[in-house]
Amino acid sequence: RWSAILRRILAAGLVVTVPVIFFLYTFRTVRAGMILMQGRLATKTEETIVYLNKAVQYPIPETLRSEIKFLALLRLKDILELLLSLDKLNPGNESIKVLKGMLVKELDTLISNLQNTEYTSSIAERLQVYGRLVEIQGWIYNLTADQKYLEQGKAVIAQALHLNPRHPFIFKPAAELYMLGKELKPALDMYTKTFAVNGDMQEYLKFQGMAYIIAGKTKEEREKGVEIYRRFLKLSGFYASGRFDPGTIRLLAEIYEEDGNYKAIVQVLEETLKLLPDGVVPNDYQFYGLLARVYLKVGQRTKAKENITLAKQLFPKFVKELDGFLRVEW
């Protein structure tokens, strides 16, 4: 009799316990997925690391392990951008070359892992994988200029659009890949589709401007990109105190410089000074030096000297460098 009662108690316990354990496991798994998504959306490497550390405290099913791998390597983009900057400053440096090779190897491995992923029946999941593949192939192309990655990325875009031509996940990675390959029209088409989905005018102007600047093949296209990007800067509050970066303005001015449009450079720099809040000045002596050099180029020597005099008051440590701007002509 007692054994029968005990069996009933155990059976009742299992009926209650098993669902509870299953619920807790499922909840913790879902929680891990949510944390990984937060890490995916984080904009800083440090934030991503925090989310990864939180996620590994929960049971990670097989379906989320590739997400952790991708999330960790996603932050290699920060290293990639650093290597590209170092490469420009130190062309041919062997150490940088080795680091670039290591990064490309890691990203190639990630591409293979994603291509070998066992897809579920979910089309959305497959499109996410396609989007990641295009994104990574764009990184490697940017790092190596190897046409192979550009073509592979375009092939994946074709697969994704064949699967679902209206799903938004592929549009932005595709636009960025086309832009890197200097294919202006398809890049603009993809950015337009992205805007149709999210309606973010600031982002649309930003990427449309970048597309014309990077992929434009004529002076008119590049300068159109600068004009669009300047609209984005005004709309985004770029000139507000604490957000202004004079380096961005100098980069835009360099595009006009390449085309020999010095009057446009004067217009951009003078407009910048007018748009800044009262009492705020560019915290960059080179900004004033550039403006002085452009004044010299267009024959306004008096304005050039006045500009350098003001800059010396603002940046007394760079008097020698500022004097140099008046001596050097383009």
Walk me through the structure:
With 330 residues, this protein is mostly helical. It is 78% helix and 0% strand. The chain is built from 16 helices and no strands. The longest helix is centred in the first third of the chain and has 40 residues, at 2-41. It is elongated, with a radius of gyration of 27 Å. 27% of the residues are buried.
Write the layout of secondary structure elements.
Elements: H1 2-41, H2 45-55, H3 62-74, H4 76-89, H5 94-115, H6 123-144, H7 147-163, H8 171-180, H9 184-198, H10 201-215, H11 219-235, H12 246-258, H13 262-275, H14 285-297, H15 301-314, H16 319-327
What's the total number of strands?
A: 0
Query: What is the helix fraction of residues, given as a range?
Result: over 70%
- Any idea what the shape is? elongated
Q: Sheet with the most strands?
A: none
First-last Cα distance: 103 Å
What structural category characterises the helix and strand content? mainly alpha
How much is the average pLDDT?
75
Q: What is the count of DSSP helices, taking H or I runs of 4+ residues?
A: 16
Rg from Cα:
27 Å
Poorly predicted runs are 1-30, 39-43, 60-64
SSE succession: HHHHHHHHHHHHHHHH
**Percent of residues in β-strands:** under 5%
